[in-house]
Design a protein that fits this description.
- The chain is of the alpha+beta class.
- It is built from nine helices and 15 strands.
- It has two domains: 51 residues, no CATH class; 226 residues, 2-Layer Sandwich (BirA Bifunctional Protein, domain 2).
- It is globular and about 70 Å long.
- This is threonine--tRNA ligase.
- Keywords: Aminoacyl-tRNA synthetase, ATP-binding, Ligase, Metal-binding, Nucleotide-binding, Protein biosynthesis, Zinc.
- It is an enzyme of class 6 (ligase).
């Protein structure tokens, strides 16, 4: 919960002391920097009425019961081992079986919808990340460079430049478009040790990336296809309640006005054709294009955000539009959400143990 979002009061005298509770004490580094002094952080919460406090406390207790870190250990699904380092996930056989089912379902659905599976390297020369713009806009989230012979390499934080590279190796006429590529690709992002949290925030994770290269006239139709796919995936896992946002051009961005207008209009057209209500997040898009994000609601009412689709302009002779799309975002994070949504009791098709024979 983002309790800092408010509502706020002018002074502490406005707080109902019958609706206040101190929750916990924990260590925290000043400004989240582990090289700075460690402080004691006191957690508390305040509500308008005791009834609201009671409801919040009950919800928090239920969330603790469903905590994927606790259930992951009890059900022997996964572990994060200090000997290997924080934020690096070990998938145990039971968790691996559930993940296999999730990924098999994902692959089959994409193949049915005309996507081609691709695979890409885990590292690349620094020059690639400079060309793609990630080095300038994403440097703080990338691991340090490594020296290999006379070249500098970095672990990939995203799969996008590799899919662009695959596309550029081909020779496509306008008749060949759209071209849809998909990959379950492992990416690596530097997260401070104090910010990592179970499967929800890790340093190495698998992203279900897809890129669609299409003509400007095909963008709205392709986005509509993405939204149909998202709806099918989420409903299969039992998520039927969600909020939709359209995030538009941020202050710092690349690309001309014509591209941004086309992209935003295409996203709006696709959302309207689905009949989905949505809110506009002005300036909330990526530096290279506008995006659609969805907040799904789990079994106990919590909301989880997924950045579903971005639109980018790919620069080659055809100047096609590139749609960057992810549904799970991170397989690890989605798995953690599923554990908590089902409280560890997976539906039969996902359950690591399908049946057990009892001795008579």
């Amino acid at each position: 919960w983002d309790l800092c979002a408010g509502p706020h009061v002018a002074n502490t005298g406005d707080i109902n002391m019958d609706a206040v509770a101190l929750e916990s004490v924990a260590g925290a580094y000043w400004r989240g920097d582990e090289s700075k002094a460690k402080l004691q952080r006191v957690y508390g919460t305040a509500w308008e009425t005791p009834a609201q406090l009671k409801a919040y406390t009950a919800l928090k207790e239920e969330a603790a019961r469903r905590d994927h870190r606790k259930l992951g250990q009890e059900l022997d699904l996964f572990s994060i081992q200090e000997s290997a380092g924080g934020g690096l996930v070990f998938w145990h056989p039971a968790g691996g079986q559930v993940r296999h089912q999730i990924e098999s379902f994902w692959k089959e659905l994409h193949l049915q919808r005309g996507y081609q599976m691709v695979f890409s390297p885990h590292v690349a020369r620094v020059g690639l990340w400079k060309t793609s713009g990630h080095f300038d806009f994403y440097k703080e989230s990338m691991f340090d460079q490594m020296q290999v012979e006379n070249d500098e390499y970095q672990l990939k934080p995203m799969n996008c430049p590799f899919h662009v590279g695959i596309f550029k190796q081909g020779y496509y006429s306008y008749k060949d478009l759209p071209v849809r590529m998909a990959e379950l690709g492992t990416v690596y992002r530097y997260e401070r040790s104090g910010t990592m949290h179970g499967l929800f925030r890790v340093r190495g994770f698998t992203q279900d990336d897809a890129h669609i290269f299409c003509l400007p006239s095909q963008v709205a139709e392709e986005i509509r296809g993405v939204l149909d796919l998202v709806e099918e995936v989420l409903s299969t896992f039992g998520f039927t309640k969600y909020e939709v946002n359209l995030s538009t051009r941020p202050e710092k961005s690349v690309g001309d006005d014509k591209f941004w207008q086309l992209s935003e209009d295409s996203l709006k057209e696709a959302l309207q054709s689905k009949g989905w209500d949505y809110k506009v997040d002005a300036g909330g898009g990526a530096f290279y294009g506008p995006k659609i994000d969805i907040k799904i609601q789990d079994a106990i009412g919590r909301k989880w955000q997924f950045d579903i689709a971005y639109v980018d302009e790919h620069n080659n002779k055809l100047r096609p539009i590139m749609i960057h799309r992810a549904i799970f975002g991170s397989v690890e994070r989605f798995f953690g959400i599923l554990i908590e949504n089902y409280a560890g009791a997976f539906p039969l098709w996902l359950a690591p143990m399908q049946a057990s024979r009892l001795a008579t």
